[in-house]
Amino acid sequence: QCPGIEPLCLDLADWDATEAAVAAAGPFELLVNNAAVAVLQPFLEVTRAALQRSLDVNFGAVLHVSQLVARQMIAQGVPGAIVNVSSQASQRALRDHAVYCSTKSALDMLSKVMAMELGPHKIRVNTVNPTVVMTDMGRINWSDPQKSAAMINRIPLGKFAEVDDVVNSVLFLLSDKSAMTTGSSLMVDGGFLVS
């Protein structure tokens, strides 16, 4: 749908490979950080490996890629926008999500600090915080009506998000229509956090 977009396939936890790929791909005016992992374990069973992988991808990769891209934006002297895809889980505790919830909360705060420090360079930074999204993975993980019912019952709109719901929110935050919005979290949760 967007012929100007060229995907780069790499492990964002590998900082050297990421730096080389980003350096070869610029220049940038917009960035969406969407990579994440969700290793679900009860709090008492969280492993060091799961914690480290989640921190590396959900937090460290966003910090690193954003540094690389923001430096290029500043060097070009052009305004830019960064959208970090977070989660409703950054705001609400979920069983077996100790690490995931924590990394997404950290991502929300990182985004606020980025907004504060990058604002003078005319770079806006926001997050989109969706509920369960019906991607291929979302459909596999939430297709069981008994599992999904408990979550859907807490969503006033009575459904999970579709990919377009998140994409449209990201596009809004990247566009000039949100030119005065930075440091904000846009909840795309069907009202989950108000219930």
TrEMBL record:
Keyword terms, alphabetized: NADP, Oxidoreductase
Matching Pfam families: adh_short_C2
A GO molecular-function descriptor: L-xylulose reductase (NADPH) activity
Keyword Membrane assigned: no
Highest taxon of source: Eukaryota
Example GO BP: xylulose metabolic process
SUBUNIT field: Homotetramer.
PANTHER family, sorted: D-ERYTHRULOSE REDUCTASE (PTHR44252), D-ERYTHRULOSE REDUCTASE-RELATED (PTHR44252:SF3)
Name of the protein in its database record: DER reductase
Organism listed in the record: Jacana jacana (Wattled jacana)
Gene that encodes the chain: Der
